[in-house]
Amino acid sequence: MRAILLAAGFGTRLRPLTETVPKCLVPIKGKPLIQIWLERLSAAGIGPFLINTHHLSNRVETFFCSSPFQNQVTLIYEPKLRGTCGTLIDNLGFYEGTDGLLIHADNYCLADFSAFIQAHHQRPPECIMTMMTFRTDKPSSCGIVELDERGVVTGFHEKVTSPPGNLANGAVYILSFELLNEIARDLQDVNDFSIQLLGRLVGRIYSYETKEAFVDVGTPESYAVANSMARNIESVAFADSLRLV
Known about the structure:
The chain is α/β, with parallel strands linked by helices. The chain has a single domain, classed as Spore Coat Polysaccharide Biosynthesis Protein SpsA, Chain A. The chain is 31% helix and 25% strand. The protein contains 7 helices and 13 strands. The chain is globular. The relative contact order is 0.17. Mean pLDDT is 89; it is low at 235-245.
């Protein structure tokens, strides 16, 4: 299954770090964020990948020149940012007529992607997309979703003061080829995936909740949380390895 990773943003909330480092390359315990994505996606059999660039694009290109994923990645430079759905529309052909992933790659995400794909294959028949969700302790800063008893999305609450719950949209999606065809045919006017498109698809989106680490690496505070989480996970893994010796 192919994946488009959206990675062209300025990362303004992470300045001054992102004045010299593109957001997709900020290190989580010494490893660039985009590398973490590619390692975990590849381990689940996902690829090849298309990644859009804009801010400090030369740094991203240099990184991939020596990356083990260089032959699996196509970089698309956008002189002017196209918007999350604009990038998708420009590159619909990348999916080659099959289901594929669309990922906002500015999160630290340790989800089980094999389980995510399995959930997509088992979605209700009327659903043409599967959305990854996670529980947040800051629901007013996220897009909160409401579900029916089958896990189908029935409503969105985008960054409102008192949302009805804490189940957040992770901005990681599996798009069916039916949806991709619908976008190509009827939705060429859409620029923003979350704001303009998702609302049109209420009742047709299946949800998959990850219980694993999921952090929006968007502010210095959340960036610190992601690094702390990565250190704790590594410490636990090291302790477990010692017990097996």
